[in-house]
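Teaching note: in complex prediction, the entire set of molecules is handled at once rather than each chain in isolation. The prompt given to students was simply: 'Predict the structure of this complex.' The entities are:
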Amino acid sequence: MSQDKSNNGHLPDEHSDSAPLSIHDMTVAYHRKPVLWDIDLDIPEGKLVGIIGPNGAGKSTLIKAVLDLVPRASGRVMMYGKPYSEQRHLVAYVPQRESVDWDFPVSALDVVTMGLYGKLGWFRPVGQKHRDLAREALDRVGMGEYADRQISQLSGGQQQRVFLARALVQDATIYFMDEPFAGVDAATEKAIITLLSSLRSAGKTVLVVHHDLQTIPEYFDFLLMLNMRVVAAGPTSEVFNEENLRKTYGGRLTMLDAVGHKLGRTSA
Amino acid sequence: MEALQDSGTWEQILRVVSLSDYNTRVVILGTTALGIACGLIGSFMLLRKRSLMADAVSHATLPGIAVAFMVMVAWGGSGKWLPGLLAGAALSGLLGMGLVLVIGKYTRIKEDAALGIVLSVFFGLGVSLLGLIQKMREGSAAGLESFIYGKTASMLTSDALLIGAVAALSIGVVVLLFKEFCLLCFDQDFAAAQGFPVGKLDVLLMTLVVLVTVIGLQAVGLILVIALLIIPPAAARFWTEKLLPLAVIAAAFGGLGGALGAALSAVVPKLPAGAVIVLTNSLFFVLSLIFGSARGVLVRFRQQYQLSRKVGRQHLMRALFECTEDEHREVVSFAELLACRSWTSSRLRSLLGRASRDGLIEGSADGVRLTSAGEEQASRIVRNHRLWELYLINYADIAPSHVDRDADRVEHVLDPATIRRLEELLKEEQKAAPKLSSPHPIERSASS
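The expected output is the structure of the full assembly:
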């Protein structure tokens, strides 16, 4: 059923209820300066989706707006036909590694168990069962022997793996990952992409903010090219071409940017 | 000082220490509970990097106290009913805190600037109102100033009970929501994505700060109450890398500081309890800074010293090994060793002395030689060094001429797991040469 949808999933105005993620006319603004304009797209199921675009294109903001972490000025977001607030149990999130304080007094295992807090619910403490699950997730990212290390004693790549393990333990259907490859060594990058591919093979949908254009055809089968608006969205083989890249990265001061700037000014 | 020489003083000390005086006992219990609550809640404020928020809150309470006094007087009371004053303090404290958050969220003024603005404006307003009250009805306002510096001596049993009750309530909330507060402080976005109402949790945490600040006003005063929230958690951080022990230790420091401070000030009548409590806590802080088992200065020094000893030992063993490696001799002269690295002769002598005490080398007429135990250790060290060099050449694209120095920096911290992985990576090279030789010509003169 999802097979035929995946082929035309990127067409606007024909949103499907079976898409893991469909965004309807979403606009997001900070201090009334729009950072994302009229985002309208469906993401097909079971794909490894790359989100690319220059700095300030709104890649992180897109994820945060979808997860209700920043307010939307307009539009709505559906996951399998329902709003996110009803589908939280299907979603795992990997924020940017720099977004947290790695000197925080917790161990790698503690961080991974945080992925279970939502399912645990209020007041209930973490039990042995949950620690076992977390340990399993750490093993899957090759960090089993570092479970009891304080997180500041881990390298950047290891910290990123801990974040991935925390998302794995959420046992989700849709994964949002904000720059999981930033600042990691080649070995970790390889380990991560292997893991992401295995998630896809298990039928999960994985959205990844990515920076390295060279690896895109190799890593992702679906691509979202973003620069404040959707420049192109579709199978990588169809949309990853020079023209779209130029539209995405070339000429930062597009019309939208200029108008956005003006809007920001009048409101300040 | 006179009081100390008084014959009644010892009796008083005895009464305090044995907790036989009911009022003293209640006051000490009250400040202990206050200290525990402040230590716990302060831990989360420290981790949330919001420690100074409590300072804005405490200063923001003053106008509330003054207004509460005026309202109570207008209604015909004496105006000094403590729960009423504290309620006023809490309300204006909350208002001040809310203002800081609102200014930070809706304007482009940063939170630290917002903090400074709220703190000074509210405090100025409070001081002005106190002045007005003084004019309005002479003498009756005397005592409100005690909220600025704190005055345990004037604490009644009922006041202490109130403090204890609010502290116990705050402790209860933190214990219940420990996991949620931890997630909020570590990764707010992740908490929100999982459906936790981070805004409400944040407000709850800040409300707890307002509560403990307000009940701390009478004991330590609004200027010093911030110390109770910052110092115990900061001290506890030197002892642990885990959150739960951090909170427990901070609570223990806070409680102990509260108890000791209140007891001391009960023994010495003119000593202000607030200052003593803060000083006791600072003593804990200094001791933790020096002796803390996780991050204390002494531990750091010891680790540094041990590493430098280990590095020195490994350099010595490698030099001895490489000098005799391809030659049919065992003895290396002192001068030859001295030329191997850029070490001073006194450093080399102390290294040799220690190695000989550990039975790794033995002296002979014209130099030193490795014992069999030494030989074993040295070959292992050299092997690790060369494994690492090979790795750098093969995988990190470092020129063989530079590899020695880079390897030198890292090899001393290689753990067994890393060495295992290196061996796996370099299996090919190992098969080719079971007795790993150096991948570059060994320089004999002091090069590094």
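Point out the following to students. Residues 255 and 261 of chain A are 10 Å apart (CA to CA). Residues 1-12 of chain A have pLDDT under 50 and may be disordered.
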